[in-house]
Design brief:
Length: 188
């Protein structure tokens, strides 16, 4: 183990998939709605499961959900859901599959209203800029915050599914709208 490994955020040390995700994506600001929708799909699929379970299925989700094209996903039908229920590469939970389709429809509505989903999320951020926290240990990082509470509440009101405050906070971390890399992490 090199010095960089010992300073890296502790949650990602056990698996190469986690390391790559941590080092290259987690906490880095997303400005592209395609990538934003990808994380929305993955985070809502993760509800009740470990993040590594979903990360290892990422390619299957990309294929199953039209390369994360929200427009195409929004037009999926009952036949698509039945087909996806046979796909062993994704989590075969009918409610989560339907939630992805429903969320795609609402995602598109927010794009129309705000110009982009990224713009929508930024309306909740202080001065429209990502929150950069200065945690020293993993135990300090909360599972949710008033920010994730507010966004989750608004998204639920707009019809989004499988996007409670804890999932919302994980989404904000994933897309870099909250940077929770620990102090001293070389990827902060």
């Amino acid at each position: 183990m090199n010095q960089e490994d010992t300073r890296r955020c502790g949650w990602c040390k056990s698996d190469p998939v986690y390391l790559k995700y941590h080092d290259e994506e987690w906490g880095k600001e997303v400005t592209d709605d395609l990538k934003m929708f990808e994380f929305l799909v993955l985070e809502s699929a993760q509800a009740g499961l470990s993040w590594i379970t979903i990360l290892k299925r990422r390619d299957a989700y990309k294929e199953a959900f039209a390369d994360y094209n929200a427009e195409k996903v929004s037009r999926m039908t009952e036949q698509d859901v039945e087909r996806l229920m046979q796909n062993v590469g994704i989590i075969r939970n009918k409610k989560k599959i339907w939630a992805t389709i429903t969320n795609a429809r609402h995602f598109l509505e927010l794009q129309k209203e705000f110009g982009s989903f990224c713009n929508y999320l930024r309306t909740f951020l202080p001065d429209g800029k990502p929150v950069i926290n200065h945690w020293k240990s993993l135990s300090e990082i909360p599972p949710s915050t008033p920010l994730s509470d507010a966004i989750s509440k608004d998204m639920k009101k707009r019809g989004f599914k499988f996007f409670g405050t804890t999932i919302c906070y994980a989404h904000l971390q994933a897309v870099g709208y909250v940077n929770d890399h620990l102090e001293g992490c070389p990827y902060k």
